[in-house]
Amino acid sequence: MATITCKDVLDRLDSWMGDDPPSDVQAHLHNCPNCRSLVDDLKAIRREASSWRAEEIEAPSRIWTSLKSQLEQEGLIHENGRADAAKTAWFGGWLAELPRPALAGAYLALLIAGAFALSRPANKQANEARWLAASEDSTLPLRAQLTAEQDSFASFNNENPAVAASLNKNLAIVDNYIALCEKSVQEEPQNEVARDYLYEAYRQKADLLAQMTERGENR
Amino acid sequence: MDTDELPEAEAIRLAQQGNASAFERLYRLHNRRVYSLCLRMVGNTAEAEDLTQEAFLQLFRKIATFRGESAFSTWLHRLAVNVVLMKLRKKSGTETSLDEMTEPDEESGGPRRDFGTPDLRLSGSIDRVNLQRAVEQLPPGYKAVFVLHDVQGYEHNEIAEIMQCSIGNSKSQLHKARMRLRELLHEAMRDKAREDRKAASAESGGED
Question: Are B134 and B181 within 8 A, CB to CB?
Fold first, then answer.
C-alpha cells in the first residue's frame, strides 16, 4: 500500500469525515498520533455541532405578532383570505361575460383598489400639501396620456355602439376605483402606497383604453 | 382546506396575492430553522429574534418576485444569512465581502496547516457551552458555512447556492472554520488548565 503524508490526510479530510477513513488513511492514522489527534478533535466538533440540530426551537410568538403588524402597516397582507377568494370568484364569473382586454384591465384595477383599500397608512404628517403636489406632478404625464386615449376611444364609440356599451360599463368600474384612489390620496397624501396605487390605476386605465382602441381598429 | 395543512407551493401562491393566512403558514413552516440559524450565528436571543423578523420581512416584501428558480427554503436561507452577515459586518464596523470575512493563513493565503498535538485531546471535553463560545469567535464567513453545514445539515451544493459562492469555496471555508474552532477550543482548554493549576496552588499555599 502506498504511504501517505500528514498533508495528504489533511487535504482529503472532507471526503471521508462523515464515514470511516479509507485504508491508506487508516494506516497513516495508526502510526501518526498528531493526525489521529486532529481527526478525533474534528470528529468531536462535528458530533457536538450536529447534536444542536435536534434542539431547534420555535421562535417566540411575539415575532409573528410584530411581523404581521408590520406587514399590515405596509399593506402587504389582508385578512380573511378565504372571503377574498370568494369575492374574486364572484367577480371572475361576472367578468367572464366581458371582452378579454376589458376583463384584464378591470380585474387588475380591482386588485389594485382592493389592496389599496385594505392598506392602513401610518401616522399623518404635517406636510400633506407637499405630498399632494408631488403626487399630482408624478401622475401628470399619465393623465395627459389618458386624455389622448379617451379622445381616440370616443371615435371608436361612435363606430361600434354595441361593443362600446359593454366597454363603457367596464370603464365605469375602473373609473370608480380611480375615484376611490384619488379620494384616498387627497385624504392621506403622505401615504406612498396610496400614491403608487393611484398611479397604477391611471396606467391601467390608459392601457385599457389603448387596447380597446386597437381592438376597434382591427375590426 | 385548513391553512395549517396548506402545501408550501399553494401557500406561496396565496401569499403572492397578499393572503394573511398563507404568510402565517410560510412563517410557521420555516421559523424554527431561520431562528436557529440566527441564534447560532449571533449567540444572543434578543438579536436572533430581531434578525428572524427582519429576514421574514424581507422575504414577504419580495415574495411576489419569487418564481421558483431555486427552492423556497434556499431562497429564505439566503435572505436570512445575508441579514445576519450584514448585522455582523455592522457590528465589526467594516464593509467586507464574504471572502474578506475569513482569516487566510498569513504566509500562504491558504488554510492553516495544523497537524495536531497528541498531548491535548478535545474529545470528551467539548460541550455545548464551549463550542458555542468558540463559534461566536469565528469570522462571519466561517461561522455561516459551519452553522449551515455542521449544525443545520446542508450539503455543500446547497450552501453554495445560499451563500452565492462556489462549492469549492464552501468546502474550503468549512475546513478553515473547523480548524479555527479546534484552535479556539484548545486555547480555552489551556486557559482552564492554567486557572485550575493556579487555584490548586493557591489552595495548597493556603494550607501551609
Answer: yes
Task: State pTM to two decimals.
Answer: 0.59
CB nearest to A76's CB, from B27, B61, B171: B61
Using DSSP's 3-state secondary structure scheme, residue B94 falls into: coil
Residue B53 to residue A66, Cβ atoms within 8 A: yes
Residues of A in contact with B17 (CB under 8 A): 84
pLDDT tens digits for range B155-186: 999 999 999 899 999 999 999 999 999 999 99
- Whole-angstrom distance, CA of residue B61 vs CA of residue B49: 18
Cβ contacts of B18 on chain A, cutoff 8 Å: 76-78, 115
Give B1-51 pLDDT, tens digit per residue. Answer: 566 778 999 999 999 999 999 999 999 999 999 999 999 999 889 999 999
User: Does any CB of chain B come closer than 8 Å to the CB of residue A79?
Assistant: yes
- A84 CB near a chain B CB, below 8 Å? yes
